[in-house]
Design goal:
about 10% strand; single chain; 5-stranded mixed beta sheet; alpha+beta
């Protein structure tokens, strides 16, 4: 405990040192005294070691088992593996603030270290003190907040005794707890060790470009220097944000059991918002570098992006936005963040107003058929998406606060409103490479787009042919032509409207499901696939034209021409690789979301099977009987003995069921094995007494498919899956662990939710096609981004810069 107190003391020392750094930076900027600036630079190194020492003290508390500390007790226990104990640093509210402070201090020290070289440039020397001033301000906010909401608070003796009695925990003669409450069971997943730090890095790194942008406004150095210095910082932040979002999707897909990876949850949106602004900024700065345009817009985007990183932190930690991912409800945190984020907006807007005339560019937009025009429209779309997602995330709170009625938004609402904007974004991404700078003639545009557009049309045709072959029930010309939102449009109450609706329905236009879109509709499936294939076509054409030119004019072989082409301008070609990854990701998201087969209400008897698509899911065995499991659960809940006595020292009670998955296409030859086409899909019973019992009728009325049917003889075994449930006695909570069979063309996903007396198993099953494309697309995006920032020819930031 003494070491934890020492960690808290280090934060106070860091606050004092930061106050000195802030003062030295301000004085150095006003007096242009290099000694003050160099001293401020050294101060960042000291703060980093102090923050690292404080974080290390808390990590030591986790490893050593200092359970008399409130934070350690609430987020760790003796049975956790070492890497989960280490990850407890960011597992809760106060610890995550300390971790954020530690990362920010490291990034600030690295930026200060970089200035040892970049400050040799005269512009860099004039900007340096103001960069430090902004970094010290932001870092000071988080250090002070971590001191106020400290993870180093020790429990009073009466609290220790209370928790020991409540959770039946051992305590030694000194009054020290020998066990903790344990980490939230939902976080006991390897993605928890990877996802949060990756996302935090992305948000924290964006502080450096923000500091350079504000320093440029304060110092009046509004040329391209600060753009060149911070370009890689912005790209690094974007790479970490992208990885953090995708890893979060993997975590949700693997842990939450709903068969998806994105649900427009407010905390998911919180990570998406700064990514949108960062993407817009990275595209926009290319226009300033190439054409000396949009200077004011670039700085405004940078301020907006940093504001959204703080807003995202506020959304996840204040508890004001309801979310399954939020840390909790803390009004003090909310007040601090509200003051800080609006200070950022206010000071940034004031500096932009003061420097408005100095931020005029040397050129103007000359043609809408130009690359800079496409980039600017791309920027506008990204900003509109960010503002829309931000508004919809907060609208339930604001509607209740200001109008007295809480308006809720589900994932379907976000999908409906965001889909046209995202499709437009994909289209602009596809067309951009075909446009030239300044102006593109109609003839050149047609020449550049005819081939890629033909390729995209052909690929969409092939895709729909595959859909018609594999999923004929999803493809009809009526659903293809008329979007679902128009199909579900309200017709009013008048007799004329009702008659028109009746005539409309007589042609087969009835509502058929609660989905937002028809899976095989031209909107959005056809348009999304066309745009994604058009991206692949335009970029492929760019690579082909570049290689062809070098082979023809420089007499190089194909491999040499390709390597020389991409290394001579790796920023451009790395960006194109990122766009290829976006296209693959777009195809994967479109297909996996719209052609997913799902049944989340299945009740099937052990030894029988339930159908989902062309697969049969059959539970064939379990580790223990239902009665044994029920008795064990009651014993654990009563805390008559410690959970470590169960199953090789596992810190939970495990209920695992083994499933076999068989392939048996549902066609004319197998109609005898199909489920009845009514609201109660029940087959002939295997057991005496049948299925017509009161509790089973209740399940059927609730929408469950209650199945007790033998496997058909032609069923072909595909795999065995073993999802399980885990009961954590300290949290008195069941957690379900899914089991997934990953295949090239799709995932077979089983979520086992409960077991009933009589060997009845409750489960949800999903067939998620083309999930592999999501992860491949992410890998391609990251590879392209890393390649784009490598210091090849034309992409070096030298000492003169």
């Amino acid at each position: 405990m003494e070491l934890l107190s020492f960690g808290h003391s280090l934060l106070w020392v860091a606050a004092v040192v930061l106050g000195a750094v802030w003062s030295l930076s301000l004085l150095g900027g006003l007096t242009r005294d290099r000694r003050l600036v160099v001293s401020a630079r050294c101060g960042f190194y000291v703060v980093f070691f102090l923050a690292a020492g404080s974080a290390a003290a808390l990590v030591y508390g986790f490893i050593a088992g200092a359970y008399n500390n409130e934070y350690v007790f609430g987020h760790s226990d003796r049975g956790l593996p070492l890497f989960f104990r280490f990850a407890g640093l960011w597992g809760g509210l106060t610890g995550s603030l300390l971790f954020w402070t530690f990362l920010l201090s490291g990034v600030s020290a690295l930026a200060a270290f970089q200035h040892r070289w970049s400050s040799r440039h005269p512009v860099g020397r004039r900007m340096e003190p103001w960069v430090y001033f902004v970094l010290a301000t932001v870092l000071g906010f988080f250090v002070c907040l971590t001191i106020v909401k400290s993870p180093f608070v020790a429990m009073a003796p009466h609290e220790v005794a209370h928790f020991a009695w409540i959770y039946n925990l051992p305590i030694d003669h000194r009054g020290m707890l020998l066990e903790g409450k344990g980490l939230n069971p939902q976080l006991v997943n390897y993605w928890f060790v990877i996802h949060p730090p990756t996302l935090y890095f992305g948000m924290v790194i964006f502080t450096v470009p923000f500091a350079f942008g504000i320093a440029a406004l304060i110092s009046g150095e509004l040329g391209d220097y600060w753009i060149r210095v911070t370009r890689r910082w912005a790209m690094a932040a974007w790479l970490f944000l992208t990885s953090g979002i995708v890893l979060g999707g993997l975590w949700a897909y693997r842990q939450l059991g709903w068969g998806g990876y994105w649900a427009w949850d407010p905390v998911e949106n919180a990570s998406f918002l700064p990514w949108l602004a960062a993407t817009a900024f990275l595209h926009s700065i290319m226009i300033q570098e190439r054409r000396d345009m949009l200077k004011w817009w670039n700085v405004a985007l940078l301020i907006f992006a940093f504001f959204l990183t703080i807003e995202a932190t506020y959304m996840t930690r204040s508890g004001e936005v309801a979310s399954v991912h939020a840390f909790g409800d803390d009004e003090t945190i909310g007040i601090w963040f509200r003051m800080f984020k609006w200070t950022i907006v206010g000071s940034g807007a004031f500096l932009l107003f003061v420097r408005f005339w100095d931020l005029r560019g040397a050129h103007r937009l000359q043609s809408l058929l130009s690359r800079e025009a496409a980039f600017f429209v791309n920027n506008l779309v990204l900003v509109v998406i960010a503002l829309s997602v931000w508004t919809l995330s907060w609208l339930p709170n604001h509607s209740e606060a200001y109008f007295g009625a809480k308006k809720t938004f589900e994932a379907e609402d976000f999908n409906r409103y965001m889909t046209p904007l995202l499709l437009l974004l994909l289209f602009l991404t596809a067309v951009g490479p075909s446009l030239g700078w300044v102006k593109t003639s109609g003839k050149a545009l047609r020449r550049n787009l005819v081939g890629p557009a033909s390729f995209a049309v052909a690929m969409v045709g092939i895709s729909y042919a595959i859909i018609a072959w594999q999923r004929p029930e999803t493809l009809s010309w009526k659903q293809f032509l008329v979007p679902k939102p128009l199909h579900d449009f309200s017709w009013g109450d008048s007799e004329r409207w009702q008659a028109a609706r009746a005539a409309w329905d007589s042609w087969g236009w009835q509502k058929e499901s609660s989905d937002v879109f028809y899976s095989a509709g031209f909107y959005p499936t056809g348009i999304a696939l066309f745009c994604c294939f058009l991206i692949l076509g335009t970029i492929g054409a760019e690579f082909f034209r570049g290689m062809k030119s070098r082979v023809r004019h420089r007499k190089e072989d194909v491999v040499t021409a390709l390597l020389t082409l991409i290394t001579r301008d790796n920023r451009r070609w790395g960006g194109y690789v990122v766009h290829i990854g976006i296209a693959l990701l777009g195809i994967g998201i479109t297909v996996s979301a719209l052609f997913r087969v799902a049944d989340d209400k299945i009740l099937v008897r052990m030894g029988s099977h339930a159908r989902i698509g062309d697969y049969l899911i059959s539970p064939i065995g379990s580790e223990r009987s239902w009665r044994e499991l029920d008795d064990a659960e009651r014993k654990v809940t009563a805390k008559t003995h410690r959970i470590e006595a169960f199953e090789d020292g596992l810190p939970y009670l495990r209920d695992r069921v083994r499933f076999q998955v068989h392939y048996a296409p549902l066609d004319a030859a197998h109609e005898a094995h199909a489920l009845p086409a009514d609201s109660s899909p029940v087959a002939a019973p295997l057991s005496a007494g049948g299925l017509d019992q009161p509790w089973m009728r209740a399940f059927k009325n609730a929408g469950f498919a209650v199945v007790d049917e033998k496997l058909p003889a032609n069923a072909e075994l595909v795999c065995e899956l073993e999802p399980e449930r885990r009961y954590y006695p300290k949290q008195e909570q069941w957690i379900n662990e899914v089991s997934i069979e990953r295949q090239m063309l799709g995932d077979i996903y089983i979520y086992y939710s409960n077991r009933l007396e009589g060997d009845w198993v409750m489960l949800a099953a999903f067939l998620n096609p083309f999930m592999l494309l999501l992860w491949i697309g992410w890998g391609v995006m990251i590879a392209g981004g890393i390649f784009a920032i490598l210091p090849f020819s034309g992409n070096r930031v030298g000492l003169a810069e």
